[in-house]
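To assess whether the prediction recovers the assembly geometry, we first specified each molecular entity separately, as shown.
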Amino acid sequence: MSDDGLLEVRDLNKYFGGVTAVDGFDMTVERNSITGLIGPNGAGKTTVFRTISGFHDPDGGKVVFDGEEITGKPVYEIVEAGITRTFQEARTFPEMTVFENLLVGKTGHRGEKLLPTTAGPKAYAEDERAAVEHADQLLGYMELAEKRDQRADRLAVGERKLLEIARALMTNPDLILLDEPMAGLPSDLTTDIVDYIERIREERDQTFLIVEHDMDTIMNICDSITVMEAGQTIASGTPEEVRNDERVVEAYLGEESA
Amino acid sequence: MAFDPQFLLNGVIVGSTIALAAIGLTLIFGILDFINFAHGEYLTLGAYAALVANVALGLPFVVAAVVAIPITVALALALDRVVFYPLRREGAGALSLLITSFGLSIILRNAVEMVWSSDPRRFDVGGAEAMAIAGVRITAVQIAIVVVSLVLMIAIHLLLTRTTLGVTMRATASNRSLALSSGVNTERIVTWTWVIGAGLTAIAGVLIGLNTVVRPSMGFGLLLVMFAAVILGGIGDPYGAMLGGLSIGIAQEVSVAFISASYKPAVAFTIMVVLLLWKPEGLRGADT
Ligand SMILES: Nc1ncnc2c1ncn2[C@@H]1O[C@H](COP(=O)(O)OP(=O)(O)O)[C@@H](O)[C@H]1O
Ligand SMILES: [Mg+2]
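The predicted structure of the complete assembly is given in tokenized form:
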């Protein structure tokens, strides 16, 4: 492709047995944008997320990230390349502390290599220290510092969402995929999350791809929106363009009467 | 008859070795979600590896014990590559893995018996003279067994809480797909877990062989007790396995003060069943 989007998804296909979940889907995510992916229930949004992040092998098409094809790579390599995702229901490691939850997202994972000491115990210790520092810095940034040593399952739902975003940031991503980050949140917390997303985009130079049902939020926060229905791209453009697109209006009217 | 503290001491000795072996079993369960029936044979093989190094090759006992660790680990990793990994990759369920490990257990046990016969063997080591301390008899070897076990349990605790590897192992056990999307190469964590689990189990085998004898059925004979320790502690929980192992060891040995020693396993399981009826989540389940 000639355009230089951070993420390019081209002609993506994914089948589950006889079900076609994604059917020739296309989308581009521009660098430093907040891009929305919307569509009626069952349109294939979560499947697109799972395929981009390496949880599914696509049955066709390709995913290019930062000029490099990542189609079908294992999840941890895609994370290392710079894409991380959050889950539809805020997921944490419940019996671990907030701080430990973040440490899992440490990038490089030198300690995970079979012979960490090949780099020397000093480099290893330095690595561990840097991870601790990074985690503490992110806890401060996401205003979770007081909860540092609490178990994650003791957090309120809004804090769990923040923890998920913090854990995602811990991997030093370039692109963060958020699957329904506002789901199940009261409206004041939704505003909080929106503020965080905008702040992180500005201050940390991040790009976001967001799936969200709350139309007001999506229209308000996104620079660009792709609409999918039955596994296909039916429209993409600015919120204004998409809102007035005939096929989009139809797709959503269809859902409401269903 | 007054209670003899000797039984309690014996329980601590036996219990700490069971705890050590049970940690390996529970760690693997936590990461791979299956109970490895061949775990007892890893314990046996650890003991035989040390025995060969010590008796056949004439290495000092401590050196032989250390040598047994990488040998057992290499074996566990090779078996994972050849047997468990292909099943895992094909998405085999816990039951297939369990039955496969049961078969593996039989094969390994018979192989050990073919090579070394079923005769019980002993390590070539001193330190068997009992000393009397505070009214109980204990040998230098037994003191070493308890100290080594405790040191290793503390080391495991530090690993799991103070290093990113340990935190990542716990995370992978807790939620594999979330660990993956946090950038963890979970297959590498599986490898690490075998290394640590098999290493601890090899040491447990050597220590048990040291306290009693080395024989082909030693690991299998302890398997049910290890299961009991793991279940008692809350399956997948390494601290639970330590606590469960110690409790069962102590209960078994103390029971000898009251009933015939041949009922030891029955005592262990009675305790397990009663405790589970009382606390279905396991000993450590209450605070979760
Ligand atoms: N793992 C799966 N196995 C079988 N069918 C699936 C699976 N995941 C999704 N689907 C199907 O694919 C379609 C798209 O689902 P999904 O991606 O979850 O949609 P959305 O997130 O847009 O609501 C649905 O018909 C769904 O039932
Ligand atoms: Mg969805």
